[in-house]
Amino acid sequence: MNPTENPFPKDRKEIKKSWRDNIINDIKSIDVDKIDYKGAIFKPRSEIKEKQKVFFWIRVFLKEEIDIKPDTDLTITYIPSGEKLVTKFICYAKKGQNWDGGEEVVNYNPEDDKKILCLMIDSERIDKNSNDIPFIRSLFRISKYYDPQVLRLAELPISLPDGTLIEYYDINF
Q1: Which of 49, 31, 54 is nearest to 140 (CA)?
Q2: 3-state secondary structure string, 32-96?
Q3: Of 43, 78, 100, 151, which is the most buried if we count CB atoms within 10 A?
Q4: How many Cα neighbours within 13 Å face the side chain of 137?
Q5: Collapsing DSSP states into helix, strand and coil, what is residue 12?
Q6: Is pLDDT of 99 > 60?
Q7: The pTM is what?
């Protein structure tokens, strides 16, 4: 090769062609009669290293601000049947959060709106392990048990760990 000559092909098509030709020649050179298939496993193999968690979010719109710490357990009770669902308070909503109609936030404001609680519950508690809460699980819009319900807020109190009731005017599951 001449030192002034470029060792790389000048065209992408040439690169693809030479690469493809090398693979084809390698495949053609395999002697399938010499391969031992005894004891071979032809089933697809996969291993789950860590099960992923999916959470459902609940937004509670309060009548008045309350001051609670993140990671506090709040209990939602459905009085007519006695169902109880323990959720986690994660954070307050943000004030004046505006969306551009898509997925982008416009005019982000980092200030908390202490009148809106964001609660979290593991989706498996609702979709797989929920025979003890048939009515409450039907309130979650993204649950497989969702069923539009008429709900009286007085029948669905939310309480702090010490039993104090939280006054709210709306709840979104």
Answers
A1: 54
A2: HHHCCCCCCCCCCCCCCCCCCCCEEEEEEEECCCCCCCCCEEEEEEECCCCEEEEEEEEEEEECC
A3: 78
A4: 16
A5: helix
A6: no
A7: 0.66
